[in-house]
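Q: Given only this backbone (209 positions), what sequence would you predict?
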């Protein structure tokens, strides 16, 4: 997942300009899926903390959280014999977190700036250096699913006649990995966190009391 995330980000960053959408004018049944290149300086789905200081705080928090996740997964494997589902979900969450922090750590050092025209595609390892210092790089997003892209009828209260897009966030594979890992844990928690014999014994004792 991490390799796929970085491979797609590097390709998009080095082949597309900001705002470019590869499927925008395609007349096919999957036109609701687009590769649209945007960058954001913050968290998943375009969320962010303001300013340079906010970016450093967010990046350091991510690094600490990733180290904590890796240590926690290792401890669980050694001590608690977790289910395969638990390991997979935690691996997805950790891989997604690592995927986005790599952008912040290194993309500003290794790439030139991206612009909004075809002659402003970012250069890899430019002679005059990258566009941002360590931990100040922007996260590359590109997955866009405008499942409904239409103009609302005039009779719709307050919003009639306005352009409407259902599911407008632009995200990346790392964001998807975190989201899938979290939702899978919630949906399949009984399989991922099965009751142990100790839990059953405690429950039986409490019921008897």
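A: Predicted residues:
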């Amino acid at each position: 997942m991490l390799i796929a995330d970085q491979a797609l980000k590097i390709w998009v960053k080095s082949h597309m300009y900001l705002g470019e959408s590869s499927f925008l004018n395609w007349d096919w049944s999957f036109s609701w899926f687009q590769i649209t290149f945007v960058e954001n300086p913050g968290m998943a789905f375009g969320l962010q903390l303001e300013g340079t200081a906010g970016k450093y705080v967010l990046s350091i928090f991510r690094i600490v959280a990733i180290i904590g996740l890796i240590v926690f997964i290792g401890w669980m494997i050694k001590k608690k014999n977790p289910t395969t589902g638990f390991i997979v979900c935690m691996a997805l969450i950790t891989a997604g977190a690592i995927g986005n922090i790599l952008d912040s750590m290194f993309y500003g050092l290794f790439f030139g700036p991206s612009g909004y025209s075809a002659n402003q595609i970012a250069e890899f390892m430019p002679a005059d250096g990258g566009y941002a210092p360590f931990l100040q790089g922007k996260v590359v997003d590109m997955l866009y699913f405008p499942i409904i892209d239409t103009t609302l009828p005039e009779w719709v209260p307050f919003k009639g006649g306005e352009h409407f897009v259902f599911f407008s966030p632009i995200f990346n594979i790392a964001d998807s990995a975190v989201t899938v890992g979290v939702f899978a844990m919630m949906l399949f928690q009984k399989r991922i966190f099965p009751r142990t014999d100790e839990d059953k014994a405690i429950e039986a004792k409490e019921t008897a009391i």
